[in-house]
Amino acid sequence: MASRVPRCLFGKPDPRETMEMFQEALDAERSKFAKRWGVDPRSEDKENNYQRRHNEKSEPSTHKKRSNPYSRQTSIHGEQHFSREISTRILLIKLTEIRRMLAVYAHERE
Where in this protein does the record put region Disordered (predicted)? Predict the structure, then answer.
């Protein structure tokens, strides 16, 4: 016996309103980051993208690639996995904060 549960607890979402709330939350997080660390994340992103684009255009390396199957199992891979895991956790924390904000906003509208 399957019970029917509504998918949206607060009614059908408005995509434009959702994007506006997301943008507000993102701007708030960016300003908190800038106040805490003294760096604007948007300017850092521009610098990193500029460096990436110019590094990609450089000539390819003439070094011979390793054919050793163990070359893939380096500590660098572990560090990359670790940083990816941290990024994922930070993203989940931010999404949880946004969900809380949406719940408060929906509760206030009632």
Answer: 33-81
